[in-house]
Amino acid sequence: MILPKYFDDRAKMLDRVLDQYLTPETEEPKDLYAAMRYSVFSGGKRLRPILFYATYEMLVKKATEHQMEQASLIAAALEMVHTASLIHDDLPSVDNSDERRGKESCHVKFGSATAILAGDALLTKAFEMITKLEDPRKAVHCIRVLCNLVSTQGMIGGQTVDIISSSKQNIPITVIKYVHLKKTGALLEAASHLACVMADADENTTNNMVNYAQNLGLAYQIIDDILDDIGDFEMLGKEPYEDARNFKSTYPSILGLDKARQTAEKLISDSSKLIKNLPNNHILIEFVKMIKDRLP
Question: How far is CA 8 from CA 12, 13, 159, 194, 244, in A?
Fold first, then answer.
């Protein structure tokens, strides 16, 4: 299995870029920069940027060092947006999570005000990263794609519906699906779509890769819900039973564990079918297997 080595190599590449562009915590305002770096370098899986790398490298076949440097700007932007969303998601006014990835949440360590600002700063920094692309056409296209998938029509919209729905009973499964596709799936979709932009992929290829990522994103969140429901701290990286504490409707709570598992398995299978005939797809195939392996 080559995925662990690939993950390690690309994660190191990404971390070098993140370290280069994130201001040291010795600069003022120190607390803000410390909170940003603490959250970014807290041991995340780098799932979204590595999906971006894998898709991009599959499409361009043999990327040059310069191409990878340019691609890494997008990878870093994705991780910054994702980290910003986690900081805000953990806040007492949202999910009220004291731990993230086995460590104190940003607001616990630095206070809620600094955590909010750190999330805001990472979100704006992400778009600044994209402006560093040498090709202005691709930069504008990437900004448009990421804006759409992060905005009220994407991740932020999904988070909003999630908050509104959390206090309600008998939430339709269609609403839960919408939340998962937007809140979790949007950045995975962004990873695939941005890779297609950077690789100048045609419309058909782009649509296939977007669908692949959407299926993976929905499956990933359903599996997270299952892990939370059965109390698997090790796989979650945070305290389980959070959904129950916040009275959230989830796939397991609505469909039951068995049906939720079957739904995740179907989505994973559909993802495999979308890329099975693509050349150089071995990393993306293993990506699917990695998510499937999380299913308890």
Answer: 6, 9, 30, 21, 34
In DSSP terms, 99 is beta-bridged to 104
* Rounded Cα–Cα distance for residues 70 and 104 (Å): 33
224-244 burial, b at 16+ Cβ within 10 Å, e below that, comes to: bbbbbbeebeebbbbebebbe
Q: Are 208 and 172 in contact (CB under 8 A)?
A: no
CATH number (domain holding residue 236): 1.10.600.10
Q: Rounded to the nearest 10 degrees, how much is the dihedral formed by the CA atoms of 120, 165, 101, 258?
A: -150
Question: For residue range 65-84, what is the model confidence (pLDDT) as tens digits?
Answer: 999 999 999 999 999 999 99
**Which pLDDT tens digit goes with each residue over 50-68?**
999 999 999 998 899 999 9
Domain count, the chain: 1
- CB neighbours of residue 276 within 10 Å: 11
Beta strands in the chain (DSSP E): 99-100, 103-104
CB 13 within 8 A of CB 72: yes
Residues 6 or more apart in contact with residue 238 via CB below 8 angstroms: 97, 99, 100, 101, 102
| The overall pTM is greater than 0.90 | yes
How high is the pLDDT of residue 60?
A: 96
Q: What is the dihedral of CA 46, 49, 51, 54, to 10 degrees?
A: -120
Q: Rounded to whole angstroms, how far apart are CA atoms 13 and 30?
A: 25
Domain encompassing residue 89: 3-293
Residue 230 pLDDT greater than 90, yes or no: no
Q: How far apart are CA 288 and CA 63, in angstroms?
A: 23
Cα–Cα nearest to 105, from 9, 242, 10: 242
Calpha distance 96→88 (Å, rounded)? 10
